[in-house]
Amino acid sequence: MRYLFVFALLSLSLTTRAQNITKQQIDGWLLKCDTAYKTSKIWGYALNKRSYEAKDSVQLDADLKLIKNTDLLTVDPFWNEEILETTENPGKLYVLIVTRGKQSADIKRSILKTALGKYKLLSTTGKPISDASVKEPVMLINGHQVAQPDCYAQLSKLKIESIADIYYSKHPIPTELYGPNAKNGVVTVWIK
User: Measured between alpha carbons, how far is 112 from 168 in angstroms, rounded to an integer?
Assistant: First the structure.
């Protein structure tokens, strides 16, 4: 059952694999991620280099039907202020929908470097440094959650050639599914 919930983050599937995704599923996921996210605060969506206003749900759903949930990498909400320093829509969300298989080696390398910086470094003994103040994100590799002490080691041994897709989001995901570190975001890795 836990595997189904982990896969739900990555695919937004409520029932089975290879099902199409809908705007309603995306909005439902966002509500589980953070109580500050409300559908009334969503200003727009971005999918495959195309933007949609929140009211464009018919067109967004039509375009989402072309994507199987197994091709979805992540859904990442941004407050407009995070994207634009000056915005006409403060306090509104812009939802980025990212599909798998579109990352260059340079992008993967950059995200891997950023992700490594989010986890504890190893001490000279090879054991993780214990520091309660470190706020590490949840890590998922091929849909499976990695134990928190193992995250740095798992990431540091990855080679760019072995990574199919990698994504880091600083935004919270449901703590009831992933534990207290879910409020620190998520690193999602798919290995070839």
Answer: 8
